[in-house]
Amino acid sequence: MRRVVIGATAVSMALSIAACGKAGDSDKESGGGSSGGSKSIGLLLPDNVTARYEKFDKPYFESKVKELCSDCTVEYANAAADPNKQAQQVSTMVTKGVKVIVISAQDSAAIKSSIKAAVDKGVKVVAYDRLAQGPVSAYVSFDNVKVGELQGEALLKAMGSKANPNANVVMINGDDADPNAAQFKQGAHKALDGKVKIAYEQSGLWKDTVAAEKMSAAITQLGKNNIAGVYSANDGMAGGIANTLKGAGLSNLPLTGQDAELAAIQRIVAGTQTSTVYKAYKPEADTAAELAVALLQGKDIKSMASTELTSASGDKVPSKLLTPVSVTKDNIKDTVVKDGLYTVAQICTAQYAAACKAAGLQ
Length: 362
Hints:
The chain is α/β, with parallel strands linked by helices. It has helices at residues 51-68, 83-96, 112-120, 144-159, 179-192, 208-222, 235-247, 262-270, 281-296, 333-337, 344-347, 353-358, and strands at residues 40-45, 73-78, 100-103, 124-128, 138-142, 168-173, 197-203, 229-232, 276-278, 307-310, 316-322, 325-327. The N and C termini lie far apart (42 Å). It is globular, with a radius of gyration of 21 Å. Helix 2 (83-96) packs parallel to helix 3 (112-120), helix 4 packs parallel to helix 5 (179-192) and helix 6 (208-222) packs across helix 7 (235-247).
């Protein structure tokens, strides 16, 4: 996969997109009760468990659309981790007259037929964060192989002198239905293979409970004193894994994550997680909004999405890839705090005050 390197604190692309027509319909905050119409854009997100989608992606996307097109409306729906529900949501959007759909697929393969049906009716589709199969017009995400590499490299660094070809590492990967999960896994193996021993590897399905169960099974299989580090594909699963490790009496065991969730940053401060990966939500959401409005207005997007990727369905997709950043205790201030994702006060609640002081955050 061709990769494009962009500044680590990438901001959204500077685009001069004229506002659409006259002011009219007000924005819609949910999937119900919209007038639809030619200036309506749909946003479909995959689940309401991962904190980022409702807290960051949705409001950033809606704000950018309104900035670029004052009388555009945004239809929103969340699949709640149900691919069948998301397929129905696509159909509902088309029926309402939405002209562009931005979708983060819950299941990239299962959504293919729904995307094709929408495109056949003249709807443009932008794949968001996950490269959905089918005839999508554009894709915006991060360099997901690089995400996995950063996770693997951070794990090796945290392991220090214990990182050797005989050191047992547990890998809890994401959901196989998510194409990003395979890319994270690919990047992690690229960093880890030959340097440590992958002694146990399973999918955690992006669920903290499942990841906790898998970690418990790994401890039973390998023995708690025979594990040198744990790769978790995201922060949500890392939370479940951290609880399992604590319950087993294991402390200071290197543990990765991804998404820079607030709880993960606090675990990093406290020492129960060693790293996460920060994928700045605003530039990604802004870029998706820019692409959606441009497609709505019939503009060429080649300069906006200059990389071409091939999806699992064989479709060539103009893409925009942003650069992820590894976060450890040493650079919390220079990443998520500096970018305004979280304030020091949000991170350093009473429970974490002492740890924050020791980490130089207060």
